[in-house]
């Protein structure tokens, strides 16, 4: 893959991130950001709020892209070390990350939030990752399923959870972030083989 295609992928993923951040903001409406500028109508305020959420989408997209290039390195590194055992290691890491996603946030919440919500969040991410991995395997090769699932689950959670743990984002922003990360990760994963085939 040449540098032009890498830059093209970067710019398109960045644009998708900004767009998803903006679209999600309409549904989440963090702290009444839109309603405060609609009654009374404040055009400049609305534009400012929209730019703010586009900026968040761009930021989350950049995090996603960093994770994607880290995944490409980790996948090659894992193959060189574990060889035929690498798929098994990836499945173990997926299980560990899913457990981590449920147990540690629940423990930090100190019972204020039911564990069911953490289980549902983890299951939703795994189901979505499973669906995308099936698409990836269908469009490429069967053995691409586990690496794709590994990326969609492990790297998405690794990109998302640190911001939650250190309190950088609230519940509303965490929803915007996870959706943006999932969409950007999906786009990059499904575009990679198309770019390589075009090459």
From TrEMBL:
The chain crosses the membrane at residues 7-28, 43-73, 85-103, 115-133, 145-163, 169-190. Pfam families: KbaA (PF14089). The keyword Membrane applies. Keywords: Membrane, Plasmid, Transmembrane, Transmembrane helix. It comes from the Bacteria. The keyword Transmembrane applies. This is KinB-signaling pathway activation protein.
């Amino acid at each position: 893959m040449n540098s032009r295609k890498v830059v093209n992928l970067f710019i398109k993923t960045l644009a998708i991130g900004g767009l998803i951040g903006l679209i999600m903001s309409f549904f989440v409406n963090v702290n009444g950001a839109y309603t405060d500028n609609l009654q009374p109508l404040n055009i400049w305020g609305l534009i400012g709020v929209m730019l703010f959420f586009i900026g968040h989408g761009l930021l989350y997209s950049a995090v996603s892209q960093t994770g994607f290039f880290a995944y490409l390195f980790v996948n090659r590194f894992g193959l060189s070390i574990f060889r035929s055992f690498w798929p098994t290691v990836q499945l173990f890491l997926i299980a560990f990350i899913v457990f981590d996603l449920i147990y540690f946030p629940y423990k930090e919440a100190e019972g204020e939030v039911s564990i069911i919500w953490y289980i549902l969040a983890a299951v939703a991410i795994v189901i979505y990752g499973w669906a995308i991995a099936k698409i990836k395997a269908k469009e490429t090769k069967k053995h691409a399923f586990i690496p794709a699932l590994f990326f969609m689950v492990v790297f998405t959670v690794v990109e998302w959870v640190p911001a939650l743990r250190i309190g950088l984002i609230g519940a509303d922003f965490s929803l915007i972030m996870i959706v943006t990360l999932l969409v950007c990760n999906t786009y990059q994963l499904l575009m990679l083989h198309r770019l390589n085939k075009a090459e």
